[in-house]
Queue: 4 jobs
Job 1
Amino acid sequence: MNDLEQYFHKNDDRLIDKWSHYFDIYDHYFSKYRDKEIVILEIGVFQGGSLQMWKNYFGSKAKIYGIDINPNCKELEEENIEILIGSQSDRTFLKKVKDQIPPIDILIDDGGHTMKQQIISFEELFDHVKETGIYLCEDTHTSYQIMYGGGHRRRGTFIEYSKNFIDYLNAHYSEQSSLKVNNFTRGVKAVHYYDSIVVIEKEPRKKPTRHTTGKASISNYTQEPSGFKMTKWKIKKSILKVINKVLRYFRIGGFMWK
């Protein structure tokens, strides 16, 4: 049991509401930030208990900010904890937040959990996370629940939206104009999917380079199918490319010679 989970079970102060499997995920990504001068933003203050938990976990050097739509949450401020009142689906408010607080090391979206809220928060605040920071959106199971606007493979859910991140990570290899290298490609190390949580690790990234080492062990090695002469294979390879370009246009599965 890690320190966060121990704190949670011993807590008799402000209310904390968390799924039990979250604590190992938190500790895995957050432990390296402990006892450092960092900035944390949590969307969704609720009763203020999780803000106190972060304060205890990260130590006195951490500056913690919370966002909530309920103005009464302002009463929960204390040393090293500041609370901003506004809606996470209000782009104007979120733009003001970026002017009010320093660049963020860790952002935790534990707000209203609707599709609009999660997507707008990401679009407005992701670029305010430091280039080696963490963006964590939790309770993403709402992407499957009707009351939050969710549904399996339903357009507009945060999970469906975030599936684009996989493409962005691999954009360097794209041969199509529909997928180009963007800031996400250049600035994200990895995207991790867990039960109800998506974690994005930021890190500046250059175009991947490929290298080889060692000596060849097989002479005259070729990759054409067995029984093909080189000239014949080159012709069929050209035809194969044309066929697959057409299939790709219609998003139909690829074709290969048997």
Job 2
Amino acid sequence: MTVRRERATLAGVVFAVLFAQVLLYPGVPQLVTALGEPDPLGAGTPFLAAEFVGVVAAVTLWGALSDATGRRIPFVVAGSVGGSLTYLLLAWLVAVEPPFFAVLAVRFAQGALTGGAFSLAVTMLLDLPGGRGRNTGAAGIAIGLGTALGAPVGGRLYAVDVRAPLLATAGLFLLAAAVAVLVPDRAPAERLLGVRAAVAGLRRRPALAVPYLFGLVDRSTAGFFALVGTVYFQSRFGLDAAGTGLLLGAFFGPFALLQYPFGVLSDRIGRTLPVAVGSLAFGSAVVGVGLAPGVAVAAVTMLLVGAAGALCAPATLALVGDLAGGADRGTAVAGFNLVGSVGFLLGIVAGGVLADRFGFLVAFLVVGGSEMLLAVGLLPALLNLEPGGRAAFGSGED
């Protein structure tokens, strides 16, 4: 298999995982209601948060195990198959209306399993030769396309049956597992020493804290939209799950289509400009969504959010690959996904609390403003990471 085909196949795995996960988001209020919980925001917060608690709890372990054994594929397959089984279980729980803590336990397991599959699939892309910005751009477009299509398709599936997105997700994870076994395992031959390698890697390369912080705040915005944005669009504009999916798709469309060219651009000009400018524009556009007077303006602003996110996302992930050594790249990417998952969790919980206590506008201002403050505050640190100009983080290999 050529590197180009490997890149396309791995991007397909990443696409399937993200597409499957996002199918649920447009109808979370309807899903938690079907599970016996009448408060969409109050129950939706722990429902989404439990998955990312599972990711946080397990993703570094997945990366460390992968680096320690020198294998990626078995863990991608195991996480995907396990995720499929948990989504089938959740579909069954809809029919029996169990205690909500049982639902949250299943969601925790889903996060622990599928988070590992996703993180290691992205790591496999970074293992490939051919330019890290190009590889992360491929990951980015797969992530973007998965989320862009998952939101509107999920909204349509909810119109058929509240369990339809769950069953479709289970099938997609099985497909991801089947595709993953076709790809050669390029994990570095060196071995690391277990879970503590993640902390040790950050100590050896403290500069990783910079992209980690950007990942934290970027993903908190995504978590915010997954719950608070969904409830906001439905309550503010009277949208159903299908309409909500289309509006979320207005963000994910440009986020998908622009990630690959912007990833290649970061190989040529360096990471600083895409990360800093993209993050500043990203935060500004998020605030604009909260100020939008109608659904049409909100849709246009969501397009701008997607374009800005596409500028900073692949460059941030590529920066992780630049700073990490080949032997511990799996752990470094797992650490990035770990803090990103913490950010997603923070966006769900903090966004839900802010919206519930102070209103949606305050929540949008805080989330968007945090992104803008980070871009300004960490600009000196970004500049220090590129002392030699664009050559410092170009397309060279390990």
Job 3
Amino acid sequence: MKKIISIVGTRPQFLKLAILSKIIKKETNIIHKVIHTGQHFDSDMSDNIFKILNITNPDYILKLDKNKSNINKFTEMMNEIEKILLIEKPDKIIVFGDCDTTFAGAYVAKKLKIYLVHIEAGMRSYNKDMPEEINRTITDHMADLLLCSTYDSIENLKKENIIKNVYYIGNLQIELLKECCEKYNNKDILNINNIEENNFVLLTIHREYNTNKEILNKIFNDLKLLQIKIIFPIHPRTSNIIKDNNINIPNNIIMINPVNYLDMTILERYCKYIITDSGGIQPEAWFLKKKSIIMRSETEWNEPLDNNNNILYDYNTPINKFIDNFLNIEIKNNTYKFNYYNLINYLSL
């Protein structure tokens, strides 16, 4: 009987955990426990998602001091994870993606000589100014088993001479989206906000380099040129920057509170197109065949770019002209598959 502990702390990780937990539950030879680091403090971003997605509550929830600096919170996170792992003595640790929780969990696992699994390994933007790029790169070089969400991730790892125990499994977040599309179609979020199907734009902005006064002002000044309603579920960090700097919001942008995951899938499925700097939304838009303008200079999700489904905004062309040109480009056929065998076989060993 193997004991595996998953370490999560942010909404995208909870989404991947939702599917992983269901898969592991089918296996009788695995005990699966979860540590929630508390990296996402906002209840709309964290607390409700376990109930909404029917995930068993975490076995451990860390209570980090919100008032500490990022470095102090990071070291506190590692200290608390270490205490739990010394008690639990798991056979394997699973970390997901690229946030501080990922690196903290990975580092403690390796210090304690515990077998480390990295899900969503090999993603690269090659922008080392992004904290996420540092986290995922270092985690990949520590991991014992690297499970990739895209085929080009395997090639990225080869370039860094990481070739052992590297396998494609597919994107757990896409597997969750597929399940939600089949089971959930409550459109109340559209009715409440008085928006028509396929007649609005979904906007999400939260990256550090976009959430400052200068860039936000430029983005909003550009977006007011669009002759369409824009629905903006606002991230807590973005909200604070807007309030602190009295940034003006154009009339065509409707700011709403963060929405739960199920309602977010409705907004994605029934919008006309998406404008985002989110990592997770990029492959979701690709799967849903919803065109997406990426408010970044680079991305780790290259398949949707090659497919003409997504495009990086150049920050120079007026955004209305840029989008009009992009919407006229035909989407190529996308292919996607999930490798259940690779996932469960290598976790069980």
Job 4
Amino acid sequence: MSPSAAAGPGLGLPDPERENALLVGIIEATSAGPALEPLAARVAELIVEATGTDVCFVHVLDDGGGALTLTGATPPFDGCAGKIRLPVGEGVSGWVASHRRPAVISAGKEADPRYRYFPELGGRSYTSMVSVPMESGACGLVGVLNVHTRSRRDFTERDVRLLVSIGRLVAGAVHQARLHRRLTAREQAAERFAEQVIAAQEAERRRLAGDIHDGITQRLVSLAYHLDAAADAVARRPGPGRDMAARELERARELTDLTLQEAHAALAGLRPPVLEDLGLADALASLARSIAQLPVSIAADTSRLPEHMEIALYRIAQEALQNVVKHSGAASAAVELRCDESRALLRVSDNGRGFDVGGRADDPASSTYGLRSMAERAELIGGRLTVTSRPGVGTIVTAAVPLAGDADTRLY
């Protein structure tokens, strides 16, 4: 016996037990999580079970309010979810969305001017249908619910009221799921943008590194050879001014060697190979060892982070340590990296002279150390940079970055 035949002439639930089961099922479905597609699919399944109809479609209004997308359906049409789109005002569902009123067709739906045939949804196999808006006073219209039966069904006012009530029950959950999907899409777009910006910055750094290596350093090496040759020539030719010329050549060679060392240091800073090869923890350790002016201790979690996040945190640590060397007068510094399921925390501290942040320790731009670029890097990956310092007690620069797994936590 088919479900529609078992249900009799109407959709009305035969006993309170089934009605309670429907209510509990809807509450469980709306509480299961913020994902829209599973919610719509479960609601469609519950409606068919409770009403004895043959198939249910859940159409959700898009963010612009101009079209409906089939988001949930019962088998055999569940594979069509996400593939059917209907402009508001077109078809029966579009008419319901436009007029905010139920539509009931007991027979002859192909003759109804509102009807639109979708081959994928097998409309000709179903005789009767009810279409109701999913809306509530708090969130407005969020979509349309449709039920269909193979055999003719003369739907009653109570049938329609039941479906309208179901629509109201799930409207709020669908609205929240849409907001969650929209926020997730924005977060993903922001993350892609951050990845692209950081990738562009690193590409420019690689280009500059290549220019320095292939241009400046090669010329400096060549200059060193010429200076050595000139020094040998001067040494072999005694005469007035030889000692002065030798001293000047020696000084020029010293400056050349110093400039070459600085070029190599700049190359290492522009493109640290250890970051690409071994990850952030080893790159921070290598960075700490490269600071010859003072001892830098390192305590870094070896957990791997997304590439663009590792690059940004490395650059923040790099710039913070450069500030320590240039400005703090510190005897030592420390770098700490801690990661858990919710966030990554990078802290660079020193025991230097410190400074007055003017009561705005969370505003790096207010400091005298030029930390704006570090704050911008942290913000680019969705994080926050804070600076804590007082004269005579040193400085702590902290970058806290939420991880992807914390997105849901931030929503609720």
